Amino acid sequence: MFNLLKTAVLMAAITALFMAIGAFVGGREGMMLALVVAVGLNFFSYWFSDKLVLKMYNAREVDETSAPQFYRMVAELVQRAGLPMPRVYVIEEDAPNAFATGRNPEHAAVAATTGIMRVLTERELRGV
In the predicted model, is pLDDT for residue 90 greater than 90? Predict the structure, then answer.
């Protein structure tokens, strides 16, 4: 619940900033146009930002057969935490990176690069 409130406050702040810039640049009409753009961007960001970032990195979804060790590790961690299983992705990239994204636990995704899986031990990767 707190995360939803925090997200709503941040989206409202972005909308207010857009409206202030719109008012400065175009007066009342600029402010109204900025409001429409901000509402559209907030809607898109809330519902589709996870898909956008995964597509941006060319992440491919994996399962128990395509990436068994990584998938099992994520499954064990979410079971311990009492969370629903997220979608699991691997990014073919040498740079070490990992992230989680999604608007809530039911619509979450976890991604890691092949670089981070090569560099870190399993214990270190669990910490990430």
Answer: yes
Residue 62: left if φ>0, alpha if ψ -120 to 50, beta else—which one? beta
pTM of the model: 0.78
For residues 92-107, give the mean pLDDT.
93
Query: Looking at residue 121, what DSSP letter applies?
Result: -
12: which 2 tokens?
């409202």
If we measure between CA atoms, which residue out of 3, 2, 111 comes closest to residue 57?
111
Q: Is residue 59 classed as helix, strand or coil in its secondary structure?
A: coil
Least Cα distance to 86 among 65, 112, 115 occurs for: 112
Q: What is the pLDDT of residues 16-63, one digit of tens each?
A: 998 999 999 999 999 999 999 999 988 888 889 899 999 999 999 999
Residue 45's closest CA among 102, 119, 83, 106?
102
Long-range contacts for 39-45 (Cβ within 8 Å, ≥24 apart)? Answer: 39/15, 41/14, 42/11, 42/14, 42/15, 45/11
Cα torsion at 49, 97, 115, 61 (round to 10°)? -30
